[in-house]
Description:
The chain is of the alpha+beta class.
Amino acid sequence: MTLFQHRPGLITLILMVSLIQLLSACQNNGQVNNTEDALSSQTPTKWSVSLHTSGGLRGENKNIAVDHQGVAQFTNSRSKITETGQISTVNLNRLAEMVKNYTPTTAKKGSKAASCRDCYYYVISVEYDGNVNRQQSTDLNMDDSLKPLIGVLKKISSELEQQSK
């Protein structure tokens, strides 16, 4: 007779200990992953974006800057308005995605910078994960990839400007 035939409780005990160790290992792995997930969701990638708009028929001179926490700072130098506020979650999420996917365009060789007396001139600066990109554009030579980002920033500017009135 073997040892296991004389001690049926020994097999049960070995199986129980093995099961407990297995469950314990699974639980610990889950905790490590959950902790890593929690840490990554608590420390978002830092980014910021700013837009300087000048020109137009009225000779505007406006700045808007937004950071990864949704804090927006707006200045209209012409009307001496300065406003700081928290943007909506919808705008923050939309802007975060645009900033993450932002790629500055380069002027094509041989292309001349378009000049226009009544156009708006834009200087956009995007900082994402330590990388800073700056780009200048006008209404006439704006790349299609810039239009949505500038549009969102202009909308946020308008909202903050209206709050100050």
